[in-house]
Design goal:
- The structure is a homodimer.
- Helix content of chain A is about 70%, strand content about 5%.
- In chain A, helix 5 packs antiparallel against helix 6.
- The first copy, chain A, is built from 6 helices and 2 strands.
- A two-stranded antiparallel ribbon of chain A has the order 1-2.
- With about 140 residues, the first copy, chain A, is mainly α.
- Chains A and B meet through helix 6 of A and helix 6 of B.
- Chain B binds a DNA duplex (30 and 30 nucleotides) through helix 3.
Chain lengths: ~140, ~140
DNA sequence: CCCTATATTCACGTTAACGTCATAGCCAAG
DNA sequence: CTTGGCTATGACGTTAACGTGAATATAGGG
């Protein structure tokens, strides 16, 4: 009843998947165009479908995206993945990228902290100036 | 010899000013187009010039920009400045904007910190996974 | 076969803050 | 007079990651 052949049945169409994941169909097509995800083979212009494996990959991409990786970095990762076909080369490279990313984040935080100090300082001087004016009345 | 009439002489052309300030002429024209700075009045297509007062305003804009204010926020400030013509209304609004800005910066820092934790955590799990694989050999 | 919900492929639009031509005016030095 | 600088205006280009709309095409139920 629920079994024609396992494989066939678990292929999910783009709209359903996108609803489930909370992203747009445009996004998935864009990612495919950018070659960081795949959908099942199809003849010419038929509809896209995704196997459970592909869905896992897409969730993985979403995770990386949430962690701030750019599409470009993911393309790079995917190239490596294609070359090594297994996790042995993928994981070290991903770690390298993540390390790089942590450094970037640290730098951003440092810059923002400096910025914050400057803004607060400038604000203080404005307040002082304002008090001067008021004090003169 | 160095005095025709003080005012006239202190007007500086755009190229010189930009060199001094380390910004492009395009930037100054853009800022003028965006109405956050001014240059001296001129007939039709003659060259731009800046009085010492205008130069101070431009330096002020650069400061605000370095502190992360957008052109839009500066436009808003300039409107208020035009309305009140003096510092009484300008300073409180600027303080308000800066406060808002500090909040934004705090939020960004918090988000980045969370992100950092996530990335580090994910990285750790990758390392563990890698060690598992190696341990099995 | 038809109908309708879903999908497909272009391809231009969006946002910020300028960068980068292309074309042309103006003025002083040689 | 010519050449070299500096400047002016106008307009398209850039970057990221999709959003949006138009004109079809497909899939599944009745």
């Amino acid at each position: 009843m629920q079994n024609d052949r396992q494989e066939t049945e678990q292929i999910v169409p783009i709209g359903e998947l996108c609803n489930e994941l909370g992203i747009s169909t445009r996004t998935l097509r864009y990612w495919e165009e950018a070659r960081i995800i795949e959908s099942v083979e199809r003849q010419s212009r038929s509809n896209r479908g995704y196997t459970p494996y592909m869905v896992r990959r897409i969730k993985f991409i979403i995770k990386l995206k949430d962690m701030g990786l750019t599409i470009k970095e993911m393309q790079h990762l995917y190239e490596i993945y294609g070359a090594a076909k297994e996790t042995e080369a993928l994981i070290p490279e991903l770690i390298r990228i993540l390390d790089n990313h942590i450094d970037l984040v640290d730098e951003k935080i440092a810059n923002l902290s400096t910025l914050r100090r400057e803004v607060v300082e400038y604000r203080k001087r404005l307040i002082d100036k304002q008090n001067e004016v008021n004090g003169r009345m």
